[in-house]
Amino acid sequence: MTREILLENLRREAEGCRRCALWKTRNRLVFGEGPADAKIMLIGLGPGKRENLQGRPFVGAAGKFLDQLLAEAGLNRGRIYITNVVKCFLPENKASEEQVEACTPYLNQQVEIIQPKLIIALGNVAACYLLEKFGLRCEAMERVHGRVYEVSSLTLSLRIVPMYHPASALRSPGLRGELMKDWRELGKTLKDLGLAG
Ligand code: URA
């Protein structure tokens, strides 16, 4: 089966998901979008209001800023696979441990199918989930943002780059410059790794 078909089957399964209570406030599942063979995956926390209405990730205010950050790194959004740790609307913009545990089997399968070379983890929840999944210790975002972690398992070999969530700069405008700088640096790293564009 092709990666596209595997992802489509998984999406259908997730659309009927009732593993946690978030299905009750879900309008549209936000499964993820992008090429099934993307070299780069970008993983956020979970859908907000707009994403819940449109069924697409990062289409609200944080998404607008993300688009600027991608441009800063010289990245083309259409070549990245974008998804979230949690696939259903998070009314308070916070995910509980139970919600993360219930939903991440979908994320794990997406990563296994896509086999990315690099994952950009946006914010603490995505960064900690991914680092810990590969046996690394999760540290404060202030310390780890922009670092490149090489990780591998039996089936995967990739890099993880934790980054501040774009929404954090909307809440604390003082962080904006730091995010822009991080993404410019990321652009250079991607070039060195042959992953730019
Ligand atoms: N914030 C996220 O973490 N994900 C989205 O899709 C939108 C906002």
Structural account:
The chain has 197 residues and is of the alpha/beta class. Helices cover 44% and strands 13% of the residues. The chain has a single domain (3-189), classed as Uracil-DNA Glycosylase, subunit E (3-Layer(aba) Sandwich). A hairpin with a 4-residue loop joins strand 4 and strand 5. The mean pLDDT is 97. It is globular, with a radius of gyration of 16 Å. The longest helix is centred in the middle third of the chain and has 18 residues, at 97-114. Residues 30, 44-48, 51, 57-58, 60, 62-63, 84, 167 line the site of uracil.
Level-1 CATH class name: Alpha Beta
H/E element sequence: HEHHEHEHHEEHH
> What would the principal axes of the Cα set say about the shape?
globular
Q: Specify the CATH homologous superfamily.
A: Uracil-DNA glycosylase-like domain
SSE inventory with pairings:
Blueprint: H1 3-15, E1 40-44, H2 49-54, H3 61-72, E2 80-84, H4 97-114, E3 118-122, H5 123-133, H6 141-144, E4 149-152, E5 157-163, H7 166-171, H8 176-192
Parallel strand pairs: 1-2, 1-3, 3-5
Antiparallel strand pairs: 4-5
Helix pairs in contact: 1-4
Bound molecules: uracil (URA).
Key phrases:
Uracil-DNA Glycosylase, subunit E, alpha/beta, binds uracil, 197 residues
Short description:
The protein has 197 residues and is α/β, with parallel strands linked by helices. It is built from 8 helices and 5 strands; from the N terminus they run H-E-H-H-E-H-E-H-H-E-E-H-H.
